[in-house]
Task: structure prediction
Amino acid sequence: MTVILNDLSDFTLDNLRRVAWGAESVSLGPAAIGRIERSRADFLTMIEKDPDQRVYGVTTGFGNRAKILLSAEERQEQAKAPPFLVATGVGPALPDRVVRAMIFTRLVNFVSGYAGVSLETTLAVAAMLDGRPLPVVKLHGQDSEGELHQLFNLFHSLMGDMSQLRDQNGLRNGTACAPGMLGDMALRARRRWRLAIRVLALSLDAANMSLDPQDARLKPILNDACESEAIDRLNEDLAGVTVAGRRDYQSPISWRVVTRMAGQTLRVVRNVEAGATDMLTAVSDNPVFLGPDEAPPWGRCISTGGFHVPRAYQGMNWLTAAWADLAAIIARQVVMIHRGSVTGLPDRLWRGSREHPGFYLGTMAHEIANRAREAAMPALTPLYMGQDDQTDTVMPLFQAFEKEGQAAHALDLCLAMLAASASQALDVAGRPPAPALRPFLAEVRDNSPLLEGYGADLGAGTDRLAAAFSRWCFGEGTPGV
Result:
């Protein structure tokens, strides 16, 4: 399959998923080709008719040389020779799906017609998604003034070939990484939230907790759309749950605040989704080219700060904090579900005997939840570089992306521990879960079997189950459905 791009409305989260996760290729439609060619012709005409207009990186130099107006010969020489010709960056490489997402979203500015780049360069970028080997983009040492280093790592192989005026600057300015990375995050965030709801419902059931906080009659009183959706999803999973023998008084806080925490997490997920959706159709180039219709008589280039996207890295930070909060609540439930004084279940679930081995993941859950907390704690704010008069501020995009991944992984591990603990608790109680949760419980037990004797490795079971959860967050199947 091929994703056809005609205009900005074709840059959707679904198309991003097809290209980045599904490895589909990209082709330019006739409308996009016509727009790019008209924009390019108008751009070159503007340079010819108004040669003294200062266009960053085209009629002027880069960085501190932005104040220097170049001669026609110097402009052509600059177009042929980018300021550096080697890739940088250290540490782990970004997964292919993220690299493909960033290449896909590099085309946003080009297809919009506001970049003024050539059709040849646009087609060369689109061709990078045809299944050929992808550039290696390292995760560390890349955060820079906007996305300068990251984009050069993505497209340095094209730099020596793109000798036309403006094209090399068009490849490495503006944003491509931010919308691609936030879009990747948005695609998996909603699925991880839904997974958390399912595990929390299993925990509520297994621990015999009161169902009062999930009472649908609370929704108009709470006046919170996100909490209301959390209540609805929990009630879907708990439909037909056994009521007899369930706790009839106030539950511990970690269970009582589930709808509130899940609602707030959903609010952050929605914010990330909205940010990604907006950025996929936003022009962020620097400079932006306005054609003669918008800026008579010949058009105009406007220098912008579009390459700096606080909505992206701050959205990532908020999601990291939301995952860490959920991990903390879940770790407390892992501890409390083993206490007979809380759940009414036999204490042998925790303490064990020779005949009935104990099952306790509470200490490990707290250690992993603290790892999520550590990922969320450091403030990720722009730092002054002091490199020169122009490029003085860093956008911490890759740092924020990495920390969200660390917190998400920790959350998956905590979810696996709580699901396995709930599974064991239901076995000790000798009862099945709510009907809607039974397929999910079967998958939990496939990956983390019930503890039936000494010598079992609870950590290995946790890793297997967390890996299954992570695969689902990346679109592989639907757990328990």
Summary: The mean pLDDT is 87. The domain at 2-182 is CATH 1.10.275.10 (Fumarase C; Chain B, domain 1).
